Amino acid sequence: xxxxxxxxxxxxxxxxxxxxxxxxxxxxxxxxxxxxxxxxxxxxxxxxxxxxxxxxxxxxxxxxxxxxxxxxxxxxxxxxxxxxxxxxxxxxxxxxxxxxxxxxxxxxxxxxxxxxxxxxxxxxxxxxxxxxxxxxxxxxxxxxxxxxxxxxxxxxxxxxxxxxxxxxxxxxxxxxxxxxxxxxxxxxxxxxxxxxxxxxxxxxxxxxxxxxxxxxxxxxxxxxxxxxxxxxxxxxxxxxxxxxxxxxxxxxxxxxxxxxxxxxxxxxxxxxxxxxxxxxxxxxxxxxxxxxxxx
Length: 295
Hints:
4-stranded mixed sheet, DUF559 domain-containing protein, single chain, DUF559
C-alpha cells in the first residue's frame, strides 16, 4: 500500500534531519505539516488528513477495505483513537479505542505513536473481530484467507484471542469463500445444522458457491450489480444446466442477502423444510443442449 502520511523520521533525507530543508519543502508545499506530528504528501487522501487532524488512525472495517478485503459496509469511516480517550462523538465516524496489543498479534500502537496512519492488515482484522459481531469477523477473516493475505494458522490464532462467545462462529472459517454474501448464507445454514459444502465442484456444472445437502445449489451475488451482461447470460445457462442434471437452485441477490435478510432467511427455511435437498439429484430424461438455447 502506497504511503502518503509520514512521521518526521520517515521523511526522505535530508528532510528527516535538516530543519532548513524541511522548512523550504513546507514553504513550497511539497509536503504539508498536519497536527499530531504527521506530514502529508500532496496526494494524501481527505480521509487520511481527517484521521491525522483528529489524532486518529484509519482502522477496523475501513482499513480492511483499503487492504482489499471484502467488508459488509464501508460507508462510514472507522477510526482508532487512543486507549484512554474520553467520550468521542463525531457524527458520520465510527470510533474504536486502540486495542492493548497484549492478546493480539498486531502491535496496535496508540495513534500518537503509530508509524502508519492506516492500521496493518492483521490489526484491522483483529479490530473487526473484536469490535463487531462474530459474523462480520468471520466475513473479513475468510476474505483475508481466500486472498492468501492471512494463512490459516494466523487466522486460528486471531480466533483464539477473540471473545469466547464469538469463537464458535469464527471457527467456521474456510479459505475458499469468494464473498461476504457467500459467508453469511453458509454460516446461517451451519447455524441450522444443515450440511453445506462451499465452492463445490459438480460434474457437468462446474464450481458453485454452496451445495446444500445432496442436490440444492445456492449462488450468492457478491456485489449490488452484475459488472457485465455476459455474467447474466452465463448465470442463466448454468441454471439450465443445473436443472437438466437434477439439481434445484436458489440464486440470491446482493439485496436479498444484505438488505432483506430476515425475509431471505425465512425463504431459505421454507425451502429446507421440503427436505428435497437431502435427496440425490435426478437428471431430466431426455436432457437438452443448454449451449444451443440462445442464452
